[in-house]
Amino acid sequence: MTRKLLKNGYDAAVVAAVIERLQADRLLNDQRYVESFVALHAARGHGPVRVRADLRHMGVSDELVETGVAAYADWLTLLRQARQKKFGAALPTDYADKQRQARFLAYRGYTGAQIRLSLGFDIDLDDT
Questions:
Q1: What is the pLDDT of residues 64-121, one digit of tens each?
Q2: pTM above 0.70, yes or no
Q3: Residue ranges per domain, the chain?
Q4: Residue 108, CA distances (Å) to 15, 19, 59, 89, 127 in order
Q5: 59: burial class by Cβ within 10 Å (0-12, 13-18, 19+)?
Q6: Which of the listed CATH numbers 2.60.40, 2.40.128, 1.10.10, 2.30.29 matches domain 75-125?
């Protein structure tokens, strides 16, 4: 919030005082913001990679980002729901369909391991 207010031309001393007061009154809390952000974007079908990137882009500390993403529900279940909503219940059978779905899921922000596991790729070939 500080960055946003300073960008809009507010005085730095006033911004610092207002932010401090809001935090003291427990009206502004970064942890609650991260939890809310993760829940909202996960509900939209976004994966952990995208959520992390969006939070870091907004200037949220890495510690809060990792805590918020790690504390959220099962990302693999959310991935399966996003894939099923877009492509239907049946898993892809040919390589081209798997690749198309994998690209979609990667864009949504899921990890490669999550995508391979959900689409039935051979995960024994992975080193990680």
A1: 999 999 998 789 999 999 999 999 989 898 889 999 999 999 999 999 999 998 887 7
A2: yes
A3: 2-71, 75-125
A4: 35, 33, 21, 18, 23
A5: exposed
A6: 1.10.10
